[in-house]
Amino acid sequence: MLENYLPVLIFLVVGVGLGVGLMFVGFVISPKKPDSEKLSTYECGFEAFEDSRVTFNIRYYLVAILFILFDLEIAFMFPWAVVMGKLGWFGLISMTIFLGILVIGFIYEWKKGALEWE
Amino acid sequence: MFTQILFYGYAAILLISAILVVSARNTIHSALFLVLAFFTCAVIWILLRAEFLAIVLVLVYVGAVMVLFLFVVMMLNVNLEPLREGFVRNLPVGILVALIVAAEMFLVLSTKGFKLAEQSELALVDATGYSNTKAIGAVLYTDYLYAFEIAAVVLVLAMVTAIVLTMKKSVNTKRQNPGHQVRVKRKDRIRLIKMDSEPVNRKTGDTKSDDAEKGDVK
Amino acid sequence: MIHALVTAQSVIAAPANDYGLALPEIIMLSAICAILIIDLFVSQNKRIITYLLTQATLIGLAIYTIHYILHISTATEYTFNDSFIRDFKGDVLKIAIYIICFLVFLYSKDYLRERRLFKGEYFVIGLFGVLGMMIMVSAASMLILYLGLEVMSLSLYAMVAFNRKSSVASEAAMKYFVLGAIASGMLLYGISIIYGVTGHIGIGEISSYLGELAKSKTTMPLSLVFGLVFILIGIAFKLGAVPFHMWVPDIYHGAPTSVTLYIGTITKIAAFAMVVRLLVDGLGPMHKEWTQILVVLSLLSLAVGNIVAIAQTNIKRMLAYSTISHIGFLLLGFIAANENGYSASMFYVITYAIIAAAAFGLIILFSRKGFESDNLNDFKGLNERHPWYAFMMLIVMFSLAGVPPTVGFFAKLHVLQALIKADIGLTWLAIVAVSFAIIGAFYYIRVIKLMYFDKPVTEDNTPITAGADMHIVLSVNCLLALGLGLFPGALIYLCSLVFTPAV
User: Fold this and answer.
1) Which domains occur in chain A, in start order?
2) Chain A within 8 Å of C2 (Cβ-Cβ)?
3) Do C3 and B121 touch (CB under 8 A)?
4) How many whole angstroms separate alpha carbon C36 and alpha carbon C34?
């Protein structure tokens, strides 16, 4: 069964190998003549004003949280989809209730305007 | 044999990246090492034939939780230097605690008390057509129905609390409502008014009456 | 078995569940969904509709459950593949939760309104918390117990942080969240070890497995004890027993008083249910092991709770330490490790929840917009301003201290009696508990002294701004501390009945 994952493994090895290899080649054969001016920060001729990391708006947080919740919902649907044929009506109904509860939450967040960016 | 080599290789990557999560100076780097740790962990789970859990780990943790971590790191913009000050001082205590926990876990695991491995041959089943995902699906929506529906309750609760605690409605923002824009009728925008024509001053083109103008001049 | 299920090509049969047993949970969930949606379409000045629907749900469920135990059945039944249990003690605990939650929301109404917190979500999240408690109370599987605990805890974290403008509340919520998450982690770790060793997740199955093991061996294997310790740490965190109590004062102090009222009352009943399900129903055969640890927890809780409470100047903090000491008393009943002790603990926790609801209700009553009335000095000379409520406070304080003839006295008496009668050589523990209760009486009586013998700090004659419903219900609630003390028979009988093994 694990043999099925061999292509993935080869893909991973090739991907990592290629990335590391090219960086290594660049590191080895590139000309290196560092001086202090080259290594200093350059921002339109000024010293850098502030940290390059800007604080994000808190609104991203809500979007990310809602994304996680629906992502989890999807995760619950995978095994269901795989065995749906065998579960029959009972499985369909239990999934409908699950989704129904989440749809209530979805209506709530829609009506509250949590999905709008303003 | 080959899988064993793979296991040790990935376990080494997992441990190194986990240590780097804690020791990296840059928070973003820690978060990225955490992604690596999750991903390697998923690979190890696949080696254990727990494919569904591995996929969930990648999908939910790498895909969503890490996005949230990065957002939080960006939002807070914490300067970590002051947090690190006690690092060296607390290190011996931390190592001691870690060693005790490790020793205790070793004690527990070595008492050959764990029944699970004997009870289910699942971990070793290699029959054709066997699928971990199917096995979970077969019980999750029937035998564990109650727990499954409670999971939905937890998700909705999290949704409601997240909205209550973080959503701010600012009154000042001006925004477009495409629905209103589409539904607008001609009469909402243009008003035709019937009025009598007024005499026009030839010189200025002004519609004001002559009397008023004269008055102004005076 | 799972393997067989998967390879078989036939359709997986639908499990034979009896959904009627879980009707209260189903009704509660439907009501929550309905209220959540209805609240969206209600304008702010008609928000009272949400409140009334919430209260109607609670009362309806209380009436249904009372009807169920009186006329339908008090038998123990299982459903959902043995992960849901409906039994007599669960139903009684649920009724207590519904009624006290009703009181909690009733007292909170005006408080929330004055602070612009009167939002529909407050009640919805509160009901979610109650749903979590219901799931815990009727959990017959460790998995379900944990899920119920998480539903409850998530609601509590959100409620503590509900007042977003208050930085104290946000800090308290943060602490609560982090420590609560650690506690959940500990509990889950313990559960997973027990699951790993026994191979069962159902509470009944674990109990019978351990029973078999106890017959064949004199000592339990180390791995089981290890799991038990982690479970106990989780329980101690959730109960707020020393040395896992550090969150209690901060959260009681920092949260809005209406939320403190919620946390200080019904969650204690849910925590009691959790201990009963985990330790008594599940790990009962290991009672030799867990009573030892509970003795330490109880002793420390009694000592720290009663002594540190003396140093407090804020009444919410003082009541937080008082809770810790009451948890110490509650654990004494479990240490007795017999039906007698469990029923005494159940009587203790229900009466404590009622009295605590009255105590926090009174603090809410005296507060008003911009004034929390949570300092001990605010109670100085209360008798001159509001003699009736000073008297009510007197009853409540006496009851918390355990002065006869209030109900607090009987609760303590029964727990101690059960402990001594169990005859396990812990009479010394009962004596220590009594002496700490006497030390504890000091700070309750200090409140009474402040109310009756001190002059008010400020000339403050603002009348109480509560509605008639609150006046009446709160007075009845306070008098109940006296009434249950004079006639404790019925409740004691009920509590002993639910723990009597079915014949």
Assistant:
1) 2-112 (1.20.58.1610)
2) no
3) yes
4) 5
